[in-house]
Amino acid sequence: xxxxxxxxxFFTFRGKKSYELDLAGESCLARMQRRLDARIVDGxxxxxxxxxxxxxxxxxxxxxxxxxxxxxxxxxxxRGGFLERGGSFSEGSDPDRGMYSxxxxxxxxxxxxxxxxxxxxxxxxxxxxxAQVDAGVLLGSGCIVxxxxxxxxxxxxxxxxxxxxxxxxxxxxxxxxTDVVSSHISASHIGDECTIGPFARLRPGNQIGNRVRIGAxxxxxxxxxxxxxxxxxxxYVGDAxxxxxxxxxxxxxxxxYDGRRKSRTCVGSGAFLGSNCNLVAPVRVGEGCFxxxxxTLTRDLDDGDFCIGRSRETVKPGGAGKYLK
Length: 325
Known about the structure:
This protein is mainly beta. It is built from 4 helices and 40 strands. It is elongated and about 100 Å long.
């Protein structure tokens, strides 16, 4: 029996037709085509004996379909399509639960994520109830995806990765043994045994080495960060190349944009960037340099340089009362 899928929408949501809506990484149409090995037609299907389905049954299996066909030897119409075998049509019930309105959509999404979780469990990865992992994601054995986490697109997680609730990963590659805590990662590559978060933001284009710590409220964009670096909190690293074992202190900002163009900053291995420093690109910091807290750097440093750039304080004894009255 030939099976055809006709692109008929029963409702739209945010401009998308019902069969285009995402169900855990696949549309309703794509799920049905894959499961039933059906042919998609945009218009009238060919004549002759056939089963025509509208894309509303994302969880219809070949087994369910075979059972339905055995119960209907003649032609039958139903809400989600029709079975034509010659002769007059009778009215029949649907072969499976369908998605006919927006009210059906949340339950279908939940079922799709639950189905994905079972498939990941078969491969040795645990996706907790309430987590959302798309069908196209690859999870290594020993992975744990906690309740409330969302992993989308073509993300790949190595063995024993843990992703906590509140995290969002989109097209991210995460190495073995890495922990991601309540963070947002987009189109970035993270090495092994790293710690990301909480509340870190990795925008597209990052290449993160092994054993890197990216802590609370750190944002990285289009940067290469070498093995063993520590960016513990409250920093922005944009358009930068960091060697190995670089320490980025609290409040450090890589000033990569001058209003017209973006420039890169290079920091050599073993450098120490003190708290509240500004690195105004384009600039190069050599290996083993020490940048003292509060410095704004606008010129290159050779290997091993110490740099301090602060304005001296002005102290007026007893002058606070003027401002505190």
